[in-house]
């Protein structure tokens, strides 16, 4: 059962990476995540939002949507959606150290971080239409603290 | 993110303060390079004591600086990452090229 949810839209400006992190952190606080869980979630969201700015929109203007649900079993579901270029080959994109951008200092670790810090990561994409990254995490004390 | 540095006996400690994400990286990269080139030390120590957030963009920044330092024959080290940032650094394998001291 969903005990809380949010949906926000913001432009693909890099200043909004911190905004997204802070919003998801505030959203989780009521169910008392551990410091490590909070850090994991913030980092995963930061990676997904950064991917939208850098890859989906390639620095151009676009909208990013973040949706999140909190469940009474202590689970958090987060979805980051863009309407950008889309991913050609999702399997290749999610490989550690793979990056399509050779300019700048890229680690190619965005998806690896999401996969390590969240319990599940699901990516769907359509060329020219956009990408959705869905992530979830069960918080250790979440069920105990979740109140509808 | 703010950066500052201190040169002691030709070893440059670079103090990073704040959140190291993609937004900060674009601003900070040039400052870091300028500090290194202005000082040309024998070694650079990145002090992470003031870093309260980092994602994989920060790893990219470190890797880029490491490549530059290596080309200049300057040794690179890292110190004082928080537990959460240390986890990320371990995951990236960056400790294979930049030693934690």
What do these coordinates show?
Chain A has 148 residues and is of the alpha+beta class. Chain A contains five helices and five strands; from the N terminus they run βααββααββα. The longest helix of chain A is centred in the first third of the chain and has 22 residues, at 35-56. Helices cover 44% and strands 36% of the residues of chain B. A five-stranded mixed sheet of chain B has the order 1-2-3-4-5, covered by helices on one side. In chain B, strand 1 (2-8) and strand 2 (11-20) form a beta hairpin. The longest helix of chain B has 18 residues, at 22-39. Chain B is globular. The chains are: A alpha+beta (148), B alpha/beta (101).
Average the pLDDT over all residues of chain B and give the rounded result. Answer: 96
Overall strand count of chain B: 5
Strand content of chain B: 35-45%
Number of helices of chain A: 5
Radius of gyration of chain A: 15 Å
Topology record:
The complex is a heterodimer of chains A (148) and B (101).
Chain A: E1 2-11, H1 16-28, H2 35-56, E2 63-71, E3 75-82, H3 90-93, H4 110-117, E4 120-126, E5 130-138, H5 142-145
Antiparallel strand pairs in A: 1-2, 2-3, 3-5, 4-5
Helix pairs in contact in A: 1-2, 2-4
Chain B: E1 2-8, E2 11-20, H1 22-39, E3 43-54, H2 56-71, E4 75-79, H3 83-92, E5 99-100
Parallel strand pairs in B: 2-3, 3-4, 4-5
Antiparallel strand pairs in B: 1-2
Helix pairs in contact in B: 1-2
């Amino acid at each position: 059962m969903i005990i809380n949810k949010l949906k926000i839209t913001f432009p693909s400006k890099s200043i909004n990476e911190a905004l997204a992190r802070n919003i998801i952190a505030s959203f989780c606080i009521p169910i008392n995540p551990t410091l490590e869980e909070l850090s994991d979630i913030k980092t995963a969201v930061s990676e997904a939002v950064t991917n939208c700015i850098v890859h989906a929109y390639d620095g151009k203007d676009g909208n990013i949507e973040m949706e999140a649900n909190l469940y009474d079993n202590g689970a958090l579901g987060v979805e980051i959606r863009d309407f950008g270029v889309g991913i050609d080959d999702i399997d290749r994109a999610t490989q550690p150290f793979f990056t399509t951008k050779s300019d700048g200092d890229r680690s190619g670790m965005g998806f690896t971080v999401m996969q390590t810090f969240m319990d599940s990561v699901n990516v769907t994409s359509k060329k020219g239409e956009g990408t959705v990254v869905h992530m979830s995490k069960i918080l250790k004390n979440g069920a105990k603290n979740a109140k509808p | 993110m703010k950066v500052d540095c201190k040169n002691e006996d030709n070893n440059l400690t670079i103090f990073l303060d704040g959140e190291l994400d993609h937004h900060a990286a674009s601003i900070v990269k040039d400052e870091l390079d300028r500090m290194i080139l202005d000082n040309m030390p024998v070694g650079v120590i990145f002090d992470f004591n003031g870093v309260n957030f980092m994602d994989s963009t920060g790893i990219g920044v470190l890797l880029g600086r490491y490549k530059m330092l290596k080309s200049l024959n300057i040794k690179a080290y890292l110190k004082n990452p928080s537990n959460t940032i240390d986890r990320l650094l371990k995951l990236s394998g960056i400790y294979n090229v930049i030693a934690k001291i």
